[in-house]
Structures are given as structure tokens and as C-alpha cells.
């Protein structure tokens, strides 16, 4: 079995982690792969500011730093911000797959214009950054929010009757008013709404988390990984320092709990 590490971007216990693990049921990966979910040791409460993004990059790098030595064949990052992806690609030779950029690139295979459906407006900076890096601003028809603060642990559980109709109403505005031909769920925390939405809409709806699992499988099947010409290895690695900061941060959070 080839092990794949899925890095969950918030510290959490087993019950909350199980809601993230449920994404695996949305995609047929075939035999030979084994997915392991690992929450970060430290990190921000949410991804809503530049302060949060700096912590997010570090926390995901800390969680995946030793993935290759631990026997993992690929890493998937469970956040549309793509936090830590570039950092891990610089220190790992195995594929590192993040959902933000790959959802946008897949959308271009399925249609001309796409919209991003999100929970709240503070997430816009995440997509704006990735669209700029890819030079795809002109391909994004819109980013629309339902104005509901996300819960990164319980996800949409218990809020389906409130949230699902809002997502559907907003999705239809993306299609009818903005001209979207493909929709992207703006967070892996929204995966519980995917099937419900997809069955009620006439355009493809991309579920970003399961997409990363499939892309990791494809990369392994084809023997491909990221280019070190794009993500070069550090000249003076500071792995021990990263581990020490992560350990100290985790201890600090434990003391405050």
C-alpha cells in the first residue's frame, strides 16, 4: 500500500477529524492507496488575515516536513488557501497537492468561466492570491459569499437546513447573473454540501478536497512530481528549528487549554 498524508489545517480531535475524513467517500481511488489524516500542531483559528496566513504556512510545513522520511508517497493539503504547498514542495520530492490552484485549473478543462462559492467574504483574499499567481483573474466570473461564518471543526453539521438553500440560491446567481459555467466550492469545509448542490445545478460543481486525492493518485500512477526548477531545495535547511518551533507552539496551546 502507498500511503498518502492529508494535512488538516487546524488542530482538532478525532471526532472533528472524522468529518474531514468523510471526504474520501466522494471519490473512487481504486486499490493500493491508503490515506492518513493529520491535523496541524499549531495554527490560526481561521484563515481570514495575513497574520493567519503566515501561521498557516508554517503549521502545514511543520506537519508535513518529515512526510517523505515517514514513508508517505504524496501529500494532500486540506485547505483552499494552498497554505504550505510551496514550502513543502521545496523540501519534499514526493508530490504535494493543494486544492486551490488545482480546482481552478480543472475548471478550465470543464468550461470557460468559473465562479467560487464561499461561506464568507473574508475568504476572498485566498482566491485572489491564487488567481493572480496563475494569471487567471479573467477566467473567474465571480466570487460570491452566503455570509455565514464557517466552523472549521463541525463543518456544516446541524446547519444543513440553513446553509444548503443559501448555497443553492447563491450558486444560481453565479450562473444566471455572472455567467459561470463551472462552480468551485470555496472550501474543503463545504464538502458535505457537494452532492446536494451538484444534483440541483446544470453546471459542474468541483469538490476540492477529493480532487486532491485523485490528483495525488494520478501523479503516482504517472511517476510525476513537482519541478525542483520551480520549487528549489533550500541551501541551508532549518528542519530542526521548524520542528522545535512547532513543538513549542503545541506546548503553548496545551498549557492554555
Mean residue pLDDT:
94
The count of DSSP E runs of length 2 or more, i.e. the number of strands, is: 8
Q: Give me the secondary-structure category.
A: alpha/beta
Approximately how much helix is present in the residues? 40-55%
Low-pLDDT windows of residues: none
Number of helices: 9
Main β-sheet, spatial strand arrangement = 2-1-3-4
| C-alpha end-to-end distance | 37 Å
Order of helices and strands: EHEHEHEHEHEHEHEHH
- 3D shape: globular
Pfam families: Asp_Glu_race
Protein name: Aspartate/glutamate racemase family protein
Family: Belongs to the HyuE racemase family.
Secondary structure elements and their pairing?
Layout: E1 2-8, H1 14-21, E2 33-39, H2 50-64, E3 72-77, H3 85-91, E4 96-97, H4 99-110, E5 114-118, H5 124-134, E6 140-145, H6 160-176, E7 182-185, H7 194-198, E8 205-206, H8 208-222, H9 239-256
Parallel strand pairs: 1-2, 1-3, 3-4, 5-6, 5-7, 7-8
Q: Can you give a write-up of this model?
A:
Helix 4 crosses helix 8. The protein contains nine helices and eight strands. The strands form two sheets. The protein has a four-stranded parallel beta sheet, with helices on both faces. The chain has a four-stranded parallel beta sheet with strand order 6-5-7-8, with helices on both faces. It is globular and about 50 Å long. Helix content is 42%, strand content 15%.
List keywords for this structure.
4-stranded parallel sheet; alpha/beta
In short:
This is Aspartate/glutamate racemase family protein. The chain is built from 9 helices and 8 strands.
Amino acid at each position: 500500500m502507498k500511503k498518502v498524508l492529508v494535512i488538516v489545517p487546524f488542530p482538532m480531535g478525532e471526532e472533528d477529524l472524522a468529518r474531514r475524513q468523510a471526504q474520501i467517500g466522494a471519490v473512487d481511488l481504486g486499490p493500493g492507496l491508503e490515506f492518513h489524516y493529520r491535523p496541524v500542531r499549531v495554527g490560526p483559528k481561521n484563515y481570514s488575515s495575513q497574520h493567519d496566513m503566515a501561521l498557516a504556512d508554517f503549521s502545514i510545513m511543520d506537519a508535513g516536513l518529515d512526510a517523505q522520511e515517514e514513508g508517505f508517497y504524496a501529500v494532500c493539503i486540506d485547505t483552499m488557501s494552498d497554505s504550505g504547498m510551496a514550502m513543502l514542495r521545496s523540501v519534499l520530492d514526493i508530490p504535494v497537492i493543494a486544492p486551490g490552484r488545482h480546482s481552478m485549473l480543472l475548471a478550465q478543462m470543464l468550461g470557460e468561466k468559473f465562479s467560487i462559492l464561499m461561506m464568507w467574504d473574508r475568504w476572498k483574499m485566498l482566491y485572489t492570491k491564487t488567481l493572480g499567481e496563475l494569471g487567471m483573474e479573467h477566467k473567474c466570473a465571480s466570487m460570491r459569499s452566503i455570509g455565514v461564518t464557517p466552523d472549521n471543526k463541525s463543518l456544516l453539521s446541524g446547519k444543513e437546513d440553513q446553509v444548503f438553500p443559501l448555497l443553492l440560491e447563491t450558486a444560481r446567481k453565479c450562473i444566471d447573473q455572472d455567467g459561470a459555467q463551472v462552480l468551485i466550492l470555496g472550501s474543503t469545509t463545504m464538502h458535505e454540501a457537494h452532492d446536494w448542490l451538484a444534483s440541483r445545478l446544470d453546471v459542474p460543481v468541483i469538490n476540492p478536497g477529493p480532487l486532491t486525492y485523485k490528483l495525488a493518485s494520478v501523479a503516482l500512477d504517472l511517476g510525476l512530481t513537482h519541478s525542483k526548477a520551480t520549487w528549489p531545495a533550500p541551501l541551508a535547511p532549518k528542519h530542526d528549528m521548524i520542528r522545535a518551533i512547532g513543538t513549542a507552539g503545541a506546548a503553548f496551546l496545551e498549557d492554555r487549554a
